[in-house]
Structures are given as C-alpha cells and as structure tokens.
Design brief:
Elements: H1 2-10, H2 40-55, E1 58-66, E2 72-80, E3 84-89, E4 96-100, E5 103-108, E6 113-118, H3 125-128, E7 138-146, E8 149-156, E9 164-170, E10 176-182, E11 188-198
Antiparallel strand pairs: 1-2, 1-11, 2-3, 3-4, 4-5, 5-6, 7-8, 8-9, 9-10, 10-11
Length: 214
C-alpha cells in the first residue's frame, strides 16, 4: 500500500489561474546545475514555472492516480505552504499521509500503526519548503516540448534513489495537466488533478495527526 501512496507525495500543484509575475532577483543563477543544458529561452520558461509555483500558498484538489499495474485510485489533496499537507484516498482505502510542519506521518490502517520521518528527509520537502528553487536540491534532469505541453523532469539530489518525477504543463497558460513518477525500476505512476481550488481556508486540525477510531 505504501507504493500506492508514494506518487501522491511528490507533486499535487496546478499553475493555472495565477497572475503573471516579474522575474525575481535570482534569475541570473544557473539552472543547468551540471545536469542538463538548456537554451536561454528554456531557462526563461523554467524560471517562470518556478516563480508561479512559489506563488501557491494553499490548494485543495481532487486527484486520480494511475499506478504502474494500470489500477486507479481517487483521493483529495490539501496543501498549506510551507510545511503542511494532507493526502486522503477514497474508500475503501483508509491509509493517509499528513505533513504537520515538521514531520511527515503515514498511517497504515491495515497494520493499525503509524510511521514518520522529518519533512526535510522526504521528497515531499520539494513542494513543502518555503521557497522552491530549481537547480539546487531540486535538480532539473530534462525539459522538452511534447505537443501542446511542456515536460519538466526533476529529481531530488538528496533522494536520488527515489527516482524522478515529471510535470506536464499547458504551453499557453502553464496549467499543470498531470505529473508522472518513475522509480529506479522504470515503473511509472501518473497523477491527474481534478478541479483544483486555490487560496482556500483550512481548519489547521487537518494537518495534525490523529489516530483513527476503530
């Protein structure tokens, strides 16, 4: 069941419907990061994507996850940057994940037990950190155009054994259509966002771990 959960940890953000923003003072830094060579035009696009990601503070969205074996699951994602997140799957799956601001807690309902790690030691830190910056810990391993979509391939330099994930964004408005997660065995998981909502208000209690009542 943990493999089923993994992909939803990585990235559940949509870039559409956000106002255009000016380039930041950090735009002169190198996005190549000794990983992949980009043209000036590609670097400009990547910096715009990065900046839009950093505009997101809260987000709630339904999602559909397609696993490597072809099975599909649905769920709801809650994000409050920096540091807080909750991933819930639809019944009959009762497992869930909560990022509390310090810890990432996973509840295994079948085993009736929890496990946790610090956010900074997990891939989830990529989206939960206060500032998302390509070319640092978040390494760019590819950028290309696929029809009407941009594909951005990313890997966590501190967790490279966890594979790579790729974002697929609409070329006209940077709306995120889907992302994929590929492990070291080449198994691919795809997540599609459904009806995302920005700037929503949450009761902070949803980002606290509470053991479910049996």
């Amino acid at each position: 069941m943990k493999k089923l959960i993994t992909a939803a940890l990585l990235f559940c953000l949509t870039l559409g419907n956000l106002p255009a923003i000016a380039a930041s003072q950090s735009n002169d830094r190198d996005l190549n990061a000794d990983v992949y060579m980009f043209t000036k035009s590609e670097q400009a696009t990547l910096k715009q994507i990065e900046a839009k990601l950093n505009q997101i503070t809260t987000l709630q969205s339904r999602f559909k996850q397609t696993n490597a074996d072809g099975s599909e699951v649905m769920g709801t994602f809650y994000l409050s940057r920096p540091g807080k997140m909750r991933i819930e799957y639809d019944p009959p799956i009762k497992n869930f994940i909560v990022a509390t601001g310090t810890f990432l807690v996973y509840w295994d309902d079948e085993m009736q037990q929890q496990s946790h790690t610090t956010i900074g030691s997990s891939l989830a830190d990529i989206i939960l950190r206060k500032e998302i910056r390509f070319g640092e810990r978040l390494k760019l391993c590819g950028f290309e155009t696929k029809g009407q979509l941009y594909k951005v391939c990313l890997t966590d330099s501190e967790n490279q054994d966890q594979g790579t994930f790729s974002l697929f964004l609409d070329k006209t408005n940077f709306t995120l259509k889907q992302w994929t997660v590929e492990d070291l065995m080449g198994k691919l998981t795809t997540v599609n966002l459904l009806d995302p909502h920005y700037n929503v208000s949450f009761n902070d209690s949803i980002f606290r771990f509470t053991k479910p009542q049996q």
